[in-house]
C-alpha cells in the first residue's frame, strides 16, 4: 500500500491503483486477501464510502472478488488482466503519440528502436 495519498487526485482511484500496484509487483498474489475496508479506512483516515468506491471498481473489473464472511481476495487471473490493461494503456498513451511525432519528422523504425535500446540501457542519445 502507498504510505500517503495525493490530495490532487481522487482518493478512490488511488486506493484502486495502490491495490493494482501491489498485485502487479507481487506483493499481493492470486488468492491473497487484500486489506479490509476498515483497515484501509483506518490506515488512510478516509471515509469508508471512498474505500468502497475504489474496491468496487476492482470487483467490477474482475480483479478482486468477495468470499462471503471472509473478505476480498485477488482473482486468479488478476495479474494477467492488469498487465493486459496496462499494455493497452501504454500503447495508446505512449506509443501512438511517439509514432505520430516520429513519422512526420522522418525517423525510421530502426532509428526509433536504436533510441529505445539506448534509453533502456541507460545510455544518453547524442
Automatic annotation (TrEMBL):
HTH gntR-type domain: residues covered: 9-77
Signal peptide limits: none
InterPro entries: Tscrpt_reg_HTH_GntR (IPR000524), WH-like_DNA-bd_sf (IPR036388), WH_DNA-bd_sf (IPR036390)
Keyword Transcription among UniProt keywords: yes
SMART domains (UniProt xref): HTH_GNTR
A family per Pfam: GntR
Keywords: DNA-binding, Transcription, Transcription regulation
Gene Ontology MF terms in the entry: DNA binding; DNA-binding transcription factor activity
Database matches in CDD domains: WHTH_GntR
Protein name: Transcriptional regulator, GntR family
Amino acid at each position: 500500500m502507498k504510505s500517503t495519498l495525493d490530495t490532487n487526485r481522487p482518493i478512490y482511484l488511488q486506493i484502486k491503483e495502490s491495490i493494482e500496484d501491489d498485485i502487479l509487483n507481487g506483493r499481493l498474489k492470486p488468492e491473497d486477501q487484500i486489506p479490509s475496508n476498515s483497515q484501509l479506512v483506518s490506515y488512510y483516515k478516509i471515509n469508508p464510502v471512498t474505500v468502497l468506491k475504489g474496491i468496487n471498481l476492482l470487483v467490477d473489473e474482475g480483479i478482486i472478488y468477495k468470499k462471503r464472511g471472509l473478505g476480498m481476495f485477488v482473482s486468479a487471473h488478476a495479474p494477467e488482466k492488469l498487465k493486459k490493461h496496462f499494455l493497452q494503456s501504454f500503447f495508446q498513451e505512449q506509443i501512438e503519440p511517439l509514432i505520430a511525432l516520429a513519422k512526420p519528422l522522418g525517423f525510421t523504425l530502426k532509428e526509433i528502436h536504436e533510441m529505445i535500446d539506448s534509453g533502456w540501457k541507460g545510455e544518453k542519445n547524442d
